[in-house]
Design brief:
Length: 255
Amino acid sequence: MIKAEHLVKTFTKNEKKNKKIDINAVDDISLTVGEGEIVGILGPNGAGKTTLLRMLSKLMKPTSGLVSIKIGEEEISDDIEVKRHIGYLSNNTKLYGRLSSRELLQMLGVLYGMSEEETEKKISEICEVLSMESFMDNRIEKLSTGQTQRASIARCLVHNPQVYIFDEPTLGLDILSSAAIIEFMKKEREKGKTILYSTHYMEEAEYLCDRIVMIHQGKIISEGTPAELKQQTGKDNLREVFAELIEREGIADEH
């Protein structure tokens, strides 16, 4: 389980005439994501989605607020130990281009202290789940965008984490690659895994997510199941829901 309490992240921005101003990229956000649940973070560019996910994964320290990760009944307090239980995918992950996906996963197995037999078994499972058979032994620098993204996600799976935090996992992918990743997330939910991910794709979120958190300018403007959000606004789809919520809040969306 992931729990965030009153998270704030403040950055200092340089203005003209050497003037500096503080901007809250994330502004007092609290949320909980339970076991066996997929929660989507939706919002336009600059809403604070990436900053929020980095804090939740313990890669970035909040200016204020708390993040806690609980595995079963045990709360994990050590930041290094927390990362052992998380599979985190950033939206600009860089991989070793001269390695194949198989070689990358073998290297990660060593880093995670896994036995060779355990690593090879896990690689076979990942290969099947993400449909990577046709390019598993090709150098990563030769892969297509969709294949590279699947290799990036494969990197997050080797250590069998209980929590997944994905930043735009299907951005710019073709239909087949997107479908493979979406089906993967559904199967992991069935195993009781905790999944939190951001996306621009409203239709995808409506299909996949148990709950949705809509954020804008660093704040949560609404959250609930897709059905609850549509009922709340009287709209038929999440794209219209989001537009309606922004209008109600009197927020000028620059994007």
